[in-house]
Amino acid sequence: MSRAAVARWQGALDLLRLVRQQPGITRAAAAQTLGLSSGSATEIAARLRDLRLLDERPAASGGRGRPTTALHASPEGPLVAVVDIRHADWEVAVADLTGGLVTRARGRRPGTRPAPLLAALRRALDKTVQGYPHRVRAVSVAVAGTVRGHRLVQASTLGWHEVDLSRLDGGSLPLLVGNDASLAGVAEARRGTATGARTVLHLIVEVGIGGVLVDRGTPLTGATGAGGEFGHLPLGDPAVACPCGATGCWDMAVDGRAMARYRRQPPPDDPWRYATDTLASARAGSAGAARAVRRCAANLGRGVAGLVNALDPDLVTLGGLAAPLLDQAGEQLTASYTAGLMAFRRPVPTPLRPASLGARGPMIGAAEVAFDEVLSERGLTDWAARS
Ligand SMILES: [Zn+2]
């Protein structure tokens, strides 16, 4: 692409990104933030409006003076298709520039092998892409496993190894594949509890514990995308083996499998359900369940402290079962967290906050990283050529 073409789009991209972060910002405030003259801002906004990327609406004026114009991303613009592959089920949705997310198809995981699921997902994706002619610009997949490029290299909870996801491209669209916990962290950092924080550590307990460090909205997932496997740090009991192949994993100390061990019960078939049942029993007054919950909360707090010492986030967001652990055994979690922090951190410990986006987090994050691709010089040039 020529340098002139890149320069042509830069102001438009800056304005569009700002409007997505601050929906309803006035044109005057946007111009000031971006250091644009009023004339340039008006011209760029008009161009974006013509391309169905931006809506301009009259805004309530602040008292005296001329009525102002509020800027919103347009729901009529480019879309991304989002796929969520979870432990027991799947979902395909479309996301628009405003952050709207509409479910197009969902189902249970058909059996345990990858092939029938991938076939069902491809059918659902084809139908979704055809339902919005020329508008779906990328496919973004969130999956409960470790990802390298377009490959799922290990998914202990699904029982899968080395699954190629590259044909989930809706025909021939750009494809992004990410770990569900990492994408949930992106969502929390951009649109959830951690909006506005610089460096966010997001942790989510479901079956095991996943997470990501998000720095200024960007997930740090390593050279190949397989980073962020905090659950396989040796913060657990060295005598306990993990399905990942290692021993002593933190995964095995914080979830339903740990609760079952602490209650001297056999390993559960569905550790997530076992954990939610144990949390409910603890709330209902079962002393054994409450002890198991407290031990898991303490194990969680100790590991979070180690990660805070190592990574120095502004804020830690806790999703999945970590939120009820904080709610029901906050004292144990906070005590072991504080005890694990280096002394200089203790007067003002990095706050721990429940995540706010819940089960939609991975899909919202998947849409965000896909729009990062679509809202590029190349992506907008393509969009303008087809509009
Ligand atoms: Zn492990």
State the main characteristics.
single chain, binds zinc ion, 387 residues, 5-stranded mixed β-sheet, 13 helices, alpha/beta, 23% strand
Number of DSSP-assigned strands: 15
Tell me the overall shape: globular
Average residue pLDDT: 92
**Widest β-sheet, arrangement of strands:** 5-4-3-6-10
Q: Tell me the β content.
A: 15-25%
The helix tally amounts to: 13
For the report, how would you describe the main beta sheet?
Answer: 5 strands, mixed
Structural category: alpha/beta
Structure description:
With 387 residues, the chain is α/β, with parallel strands linked by helices. Helices cover 42% and strands 23% of the residues. It contains 13 helices and 15 strands. The strands form 4 sheets. A 5-stranded mixed beta sheet has the order 5-4-3-6-10, with helices on both faces. Strands 13-12-11-14-15 form a 5-stranded mixed beta sheet, sandwiched between helices. β11 and β12 (208-215) form a beta hairpin. The longest helix has 25 residues, at 287-311. The radius of gyration is 23 Å and the shape is globular. The protein starts with a helix and ends with a helix. Residues 232, 242, 244, 246, 249, 251 line the site of zinc ion (ZN).
